[in-house]
């Protein structure tokens, strides 16, 4: 399988379930870190052209905190944790102290905390996938970017565009106490990883 477009419905369902398992573990770690309950939505899988991704996510013109992690090993690709401005402030308030802040001007401690949050969440996600598929997977040190959502998205999209005309996006959204402070976990697996993943799960050719 050399492109996302070759996936059948069963393969897509399997990938969504992987996203659900990984995100469930990541959100559990975030909830424990913050000491408050979090809600998670059912995963969605999108196969789209680059320009359609911005429309699907509906946040390209909003200021977001992006925590970007590269995946290495038997699976390669990228994770992107998106936290909107309200969610970013809640995370920092719950773990540090409540104060007025401009997320475009975070100090070193705040950026370090968000980086560690990304490290813990991605580690939880990856450990779940690695155990399920019995594959060796590693992650890079998280990169923090606070910018317009579209600008942050351009990093993983540029990587994938060099390999495929289509973008595969596995998306989960989460909220705090049913409030509208939402975040997203986006998983962009590289096209060449799809066949090994599906073979490990017993449905590849």
Could you characterize what this model shows?
- Strands 1, 2, 3, 4, 5, 6, 7 and 8 form an 8-stranded antiparallel sheet that branches.
- The chain has helices at residues 9-34, 50-57, 85-95, 108-133, 149-161, 194-200; strands at residues 38-40, 44-48, 63-73, 77-84, 137-139, 143-148, 167-176, 183-189.
- Helices cover 44% and strands 26% of the residues.
- It has a single domain (4-199), classed as CheC-like (Chemotaxis protein chec).
- It is α+β, with helices and mostly antiparallel strands.
- Helix 1 packs across helix 4 (108-133).
- The protein contains 6 helices and 8 strands.
- It is globular and about 50 Å long.
- One of its GO terms (molecular function) is hydrolase activity.
- Residues 10-46, 110-144 form the CheC-like protein domain.
Order of helices and strands: HEEHEEHHEEHEEH
Any idea what the radius of gyration is?
A: 16 Å
Overall average pLDDT? 79
Counted by DSSP, the helix tally is 6
CATH superfamily: CheC-like
Number of domains: 1
Low-confidence stretches: none
Indicate the CATH architecture. Answer: 3-Layer(aba) Sandwich
Percentage of residues assigned to helices:
40-55%
Structural class: alpha+beta
Q: Could you say what the CATH topology is called?
A: Chemotaxis protein chec
In CATH, what is the class?
Alpha Beta
The strand count comes to: 8
Task: Give the termini distance in whole angstroms.
Answer: 9 Å
User: How much beta, percentage-wise?
Assistant: 25-35%
Largest sheet: 8 strands, antiparallel
Q: What's the shape? A: globular
């Amino acid at each position: 399988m050399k492109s996302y477009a070759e996936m059948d419905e069963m393969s897509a369902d399997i990938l969504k379930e992987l996203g659900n398992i990984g995100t469930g573990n990541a959100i559990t770690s975030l909830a424990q870190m913050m000491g408050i309950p979090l809600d998670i939505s059912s995963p969605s899988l999108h196969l789209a052209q680059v320009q359609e991704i911005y429309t699907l996510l509906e946040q390209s013109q909003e200021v977001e905190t992006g925590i970007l992690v590269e995946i290495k090993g038997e699976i390669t690709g990228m994770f992107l944790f998106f936290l909107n401005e309200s969610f970013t402030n809640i995370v920092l308030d719950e773990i540090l102290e409540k104060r007025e802040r401009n997320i475009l001007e975070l100090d070193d401690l705040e950026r370090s905390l968000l980086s560690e949050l990304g490290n813990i969440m991605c580690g939880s996600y990856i450990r779940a996938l690695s155990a399920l598929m019995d594959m060796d997977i590693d992650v890079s040190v998280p990169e923090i970017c606070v910018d317009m959502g579209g600008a942050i998205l351009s990093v993983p999209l540029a990587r994938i565009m060099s390999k495929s005309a289509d973008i595969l996006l596995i998306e989960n959204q989460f909220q705090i106490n049913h409030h509208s402070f939402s975040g997203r976990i986006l998983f962009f697996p590289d096209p060449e990883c799809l066949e090994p993943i599906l073979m490990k799960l017993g449905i590849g050719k």
